[in-house]
Amino acid sequence: MHKVWRIAVRDYLAAVKTKGFIIGLAVVPVIMSGSVLAMILLKDQVDTRGKKIAVIDHTGIVAEAIVDAARERNEKEVYEENTGDKIKPEYIIEIVNMDQANPDQQKLELSDQVRRGDLHGFVEIFPEAIHPSQNWDETHIAYYAKNAALDDIRRWLISPINVRLRSERLARLGIAETDEEELFAWLSVEGRNLIERDTKTGDVQDAQKSEEWHAVVVPIIMLMLMFILILMGASPLLNAVMEEKLQRIAEVLLGSIQPFQLMLGKLIGGIMVTLTGASVYILAGVFAVMQLGIYQIVPMYIIPWFFIYLILAVFMLGSIFAALGSAASDVKDAQSMTFPAMIPVLIPMFILTPVLKEPLSDFSTWMSLVPLFTPMLMMVRMGTPQGIPMWQPWVGLVGVILFTILSVWASGRIFRVGILLQGSTPKLSRIIKWIIKG
User: Fold this and answer.
1) Is 359 exposed, middle or buried (0-12, 13-18, 19+ CB in 10 A)?
2) Is 209 exposed, middle or buried (0-12, 13-18, 19+ CB in 10 A)?
3) Which of 28, 164, 175, 256 minimizes the number of CB atoms within 10 Å of its CB?
4) 78: phi then psi, degrees, rounded to nearest 5
């Protein structure tokens, strides 16, 4: 055991004493949350050049409403109130008379203007829009632009067009315009947590408002942390073992230590690296939660579960990476085996959405009980506001322990043969033979 510990300490110090490890601790979370940070930092990076939009109005009543809405928007939203800086583009509306003789040619010419940059886009409002129930198939409003699907103007046009059409329909039904606001008042359905009784006083407590971000932030952070730390502690074993094999370092080490002991030492070193990173992230996260005063949304009881599942995940997946590294004969072999080895880590990322939406569904439950996926998916399910039955983490834990033992045993047999085998291309049939015959 002393030799195993020496190998583990050597690998641990070789990893954490580098500048790359320290930089990685800070940079990796930033990279993983880069899209969110980019959205925050670049939210003010808007093209403020004026957007000219042509309107073909077959109804004869909507175009002026669009002009009025654009004028009001340009007065209130385009310039920042305190500094006077231009923060949004103004919308310039041009009403185009419909060409009854050749409408297709007219729209072609407008499209050419968009291509040249003379127009940003144009909208066509068909006559059936006033009474859509009379011909639903022909009722539509078309917006033409270079990037119409993601264009903010397309979304902005929805409100002034529909407000004007609604007013026209009400007027034709003889309903006073003053009744419109209450008639079409739109009330949202507010999410709330379940009502509980105070265990100390016995009083019934008011239900707290349930925010969407409350429901996803903890599970996603748990998943991403597990993903990062597995990449940090387990996946490097593939290349590390392969390099020591090719450089004949492993042969020197095996002169005084058994192959399984060498693999075990490397696994323990990987776990030590992972726990170092996990401690930094968890302590920083707890500190941030306490400072922000949002500790009530974080179920602290899952932190011990997180460390238990993390250690088992690195042991289980790390043994697979180490075994594949011992089977590789060159860098090309290692690269070809990296993606298959990453599949157990990637699949939980792919099915995150259905698990978040229905953490108690049969699909979520059974997928989280598959040992290869249990560490990541069980953390996601435990982090949701509704939680899960407490028997499930225990059953999942038993499954992961048993599969980890099997994985380490099988990987040890592969490692014993592969680490000394040079120039042999790793094949699945050959690896299975190593597991069976040793």
Assistant:
1) buried
2) exposed
3) 256
4) -75, -40
Q: Is the dihedral of CA 32, 33, 39, 42 positive or negative?
A: negative
Q: Distance of alpha carbon 245 from its chain centroid, rounded?
A: 37
305-341 per-position pLDDT tens digit: 999 999 999 989 988 888 888 887 777 777 777 888 8
pTM above 0.90, yes or no: no
CB 270 within 8 A of CB 314: yes
CA pair distance 6, 234, nearest whole angstrom: 19
Strand-pairing partners, residue 192, are 209
Q: Which two tokens stand for residue 164?
A: 């004007």
- Provide φ and ψ at 194, rounded to 5°: -70, 150
Q: Which amino acid is at 393?
A: P
| Domain boundaries of the chain, sorted by first residue | 51-183, 214-437
What pLDDT digit, counting tens, does each position of 271-308 carry?
A: 898 898 888 888 888 887 777 776 667 778 888 999 99
Q: Which residue shows structure tokens 């050959």?
A: 430
The position carrying tokens 């409002």 is: 125
